[in-house]
Amino acid sequence: MNFSDSEIVASIMRARGYDVAEKADHADVIMVNTCSIRDNAEQRVWKRLRELKSLKKRNISLQIGIIGCMAERLKEEILEEHLEVDFIAGPDSYRVLPDLIEAAVSGQQAANVVLSEEETYEDIHPVRLHSNGVSAFISIMRGCENFCAYCVVPFTRGKERSRNPQTIIDEARTLFENGYREITLLGQNVNSYRWIDDNKDEINFPKLLKMVAQIDPVSRIRFTTSHPKDLSDELLRVIAENENVCNAIHLAVQSGSTPVLERMNRKYTREYYLNRIAAIRSIIPDCAISTDIIAGFCDETEEDHQNTLSLMREARFDYAFMFKYSERSGTIAAKKFEDNISDDVKGRRLEEIIELQQEISLQSNQNDMGKIVEVLIEGQSKKSTSQFMGRDDRNKVVVFDGIDLKKGDCVRVKITKCTSATLIGEIVS
Ligand code: SAH
Ligand code: SF4
User: Tell me: the pLDDT tens digits for 69-120?
Assistant: First the structure.
């Protein structure tokens, strides 16, 4: 999401005559696009800021900005305690960045963290940064109103709003015309995408996905992320029926224990979640499923933790992002519950979750042995120039030997070896 936002910021800056600098010490302005989701994300930003402070000592005209969720959450603290910061902009204030910088140049700290109910940046054509020229993101909505108890996003990114579908389709078409072969539609909960068109017809996410898939039937469409409470069979059928909509669903479970899910305000039970997994498996038999898991949420018992492990064994996720619970001030959990699981216990539970997931990921990859998969090449592998890497339709990373191939080519690869993270194979004609 932040990566995509940085591309919008680059476009706004370019329209006012700026360009992207190759290196930090060549830049007149440096912006740090920040994330507040967990404390360690914020710690990384403070560290970066210390590095930038020493850069500023060498170049006093350098303008430093903090943008994104930390700017929204910690505006006063940053302005008061970090005099090296010249300007601050929240996620809905990127259009005024050039003005903030102009004000900052005259010596004042400048800030805008007003959240909007309408801003979607739908008319901004993102400048593709560090792009591999093959895959790109398109933000289809902003904000979130789910208020999961642990989560800071509804406070830093504001109300949920969907973007006009025509602008999404135009952006996708331009990307395909420019050689991109894969786009990922982005939102905090794409399943609640909703737009009422001029005929008063509702366009929901399954309809939007179908419209985007039909633009270029040979290019891949992905999306992230889906909230389980809104994952409809209609959406699953659109994935099954459209060859180029990838068979991969990210469905964050967070916990396998119903009482924990209830305290998290996730609005589903363990049974409901497993029922959605069963629906995916029956409607899209070869679908990869990935998830997010939080270890050590407030009052989590050993039994709750065991329930998370048993849910993982039942759901058999291909991949997972796994985190220790990190209390964020201002959230519902911070107000209502005590962060009462010790760091040692959180750490041990997280280790157990990671270890189990590695086993399951390895088994999932071993099941692919001998299969032939379609791989969209993203570039050369890190290890060798005669090796290429890409992803299959399920988003699994595939590495293989090849010559005369280039990014954006699609090849068929037979899987012969694997690790828990990578499939290794040979090209077949
Ligand atoms: N909107 C997405 C999630 C975005 S945040 C969704 O609901 O699927 C990505 C992940 O960060 C979440 O799914 C959750 O697992 C994790 N996360 C969010 N807040 C957290 C916190 N306070 N502590 C630890 N992990 C957190
Ligand atoms: Fe956070 Fe929940 Fe919204 Fe995801 S759906 S961004 S976890 S509040």
Answer: 999 999 999 999 999 999 999 999 999 999 999 999 998 899 999 999 999 9
Number of domains in the chain: 3
How close is the Cα of 150 to the center of ligand 1, in Å? 8
Q: Give the position, in ligand 2's atom list, of the atom nearest the Cα of 188.
A: 6
Whether 92 and 181 map to the same domain: the answer is no
Where residue 422 sits, what CATH number does that domain have? 2.40.50.140
Interatomic CA distance for residues 137 and 159, integer angstroms: 21
Shared domain check, 139 and 97:
no
Q: Which domain, by its residues, includes 280? A: 135-366
Same domain (yes/no): 362, 291 = yes
**Ligand 1 centre distance from Cα of residue 326 (Å):** 10
Residues contacting ligand 1 via CB (< 6 Å): 37-38, 150-151, 188-189, 225, 227, 252, 254, 292, 294, 323, 325-326, 328
| 284 torsion bin: left (phi>0), alpha (psi -120 to 50), beta (else) | beta
Please check whether residues 157 and 240 belong to one and the same domain: yes
State the pTM of this model. 0.95
Residue 314, domain CATH: 3.80.30.20
**Which domain-ending residue is among 346, 366, 386?**
366
d(CA 2, CA 72) in angstroms, rounded, equals 14
Average pLDDT for runs of 10 along the chain of length 429: 95 96 92 97 95 92 96 95 95 97 92 96 92 93 97 97 97 95 96 94 97 96 96 97 97 98 98 98 97 98 98 98 97 98 98 98 97 95 87 97 92 97 94
Burial class (CB in 10 A: 0-12, 13-18, 19+), 386: exposed
- What lies within 8 Å, CB to CB, of 306 at 6+ separation is none
* Longest alpha-carbon distance in the chain: 65
DSSP string across 197-266: -TTS-EEEHHHHHHHHHTT-TTSEEEEE-B-GGG--HHHHHHHHH-TTB-SEEEB--B-S-HHHHHHTT-
Boundary residue ending a domain (81, 112, 143): 112
| Residue-level pLDDT at 108 | 87
Q: Which pLDDT does position 356 carry in this prediction?
A: 98
For 14-54, how does the pLDDT look when each residue is reduced to its tens digit (9 = 90+)? Answer: 999 999 998 988 999 999 999 999 999 999 999 999 999 99
